[in-house]
Fold this protein.
Amino acid sequence: LKRSLAAGSGAPSRTNIAEVLFGVDAVYALLPDAQKKMVVRQEELLFQWKNSRAVGAVFSSKCQKETLGHQDDNQLLPCTECRDLLKLHTFQVALNRPIPDDANMKFMPISHQDLDVGDIYFKVKGIRDLVEMNDGNSPWLKFARGVVDGVYAKKDVLLGMVEALVIKTERLAKGKSLKNMSYPSAFSDFCNILASTSMRCDSELWLTAPRVGRYSGS
């Protein structure tokens, strides 16, 4: 279930299905959209197993819908058809195929992506706008990706300042005060050094960040 968004598998290739439906010269990639949908629908009908994410299990397309009892841990035993999936060569191949690294998941063929599910997920998580604005040129998204990838792992002062500003903005948006707000130690140390060197620079810096406890780090 973690390998792809597919609803199931075990069917003949789309190329073979296209040839059966539209002749031996048919090429799936060149078919009109309406005929591609016919191929995909036929593929679903020929699945040998189906992935149920709601249940978190894989079922045979011929599931008998009756269990064979319970295991020692009280889990239901699969029916004969579902159990025999483990003997199916195509199912064994799918199980033994290595799971792609996260960095390579973006190369998943579009034909095997469910864009509607992805769009709904982005809406639920509230990140749709962030994803759609990612044209590869935004410095803010590049920075966020760099933080996630550890590019700025040693930039403790910079990350601490960004963290402080984000926390301040969130607290003010929720109508909370800035009392007892704490800062990352590297940023707090930087502020102490800056204040001892130039009070003017220190004042300019804190026009954008909260002042409470800035010298103590607490």
About this structure: The mean pLDDT is 80. DSSP finds ten helices and three strands in the chain.
